[in-house]
Amino acid sequence: MTLFSKELSFRWSDLDPNFHVRHSAYYDFGAQHRIEILESLGLTMKVLRSQNFGPILFKEECVFRKEIMLSDKIVMHTKISKMRPDASRWSIVHEFINDEDKLCAIITVDGAWMDTKLRKIANPTPEIAMDAIRNFPKTNDFLEL
What we know:
By secondary structure, the protein is an alpha+beta fold. It is 21% helix and 41% strand. A hairpin with a 4-residue loop joins strand 5 and strand 6. The mean pLDDT is 95. It is an enzyme of class 3 (hydrolase).
């Protein structure tokens, strides 16, 4: 199974007045990685636009465990932790791991697929979305909803 990991590079603008990565930067890194993963699985912006659907989030939270500084070496691992059998609802986690293999933060997002014409949850789930999301690596405690 494909692993979705990304080495992060922090910018000065990612820092807060305490000289560690600001809280909202974590969410930006997670969002960018999810879009890159979807693109790699064939769900490009062009495909999403042409088929009139896209991902939507209901909840996004981050648990901060260890501060991250500008020069820290961090790898973000992205996995799916929960999913309905038809891939209509799902939860994705992003783990921020330092070079000492310590968990610095974990983002969890709960989402679904939205029909962008109707502005409602897509029903049924587009086949291409089901195929893509099923290719995500799963967490050790993966739960089928």
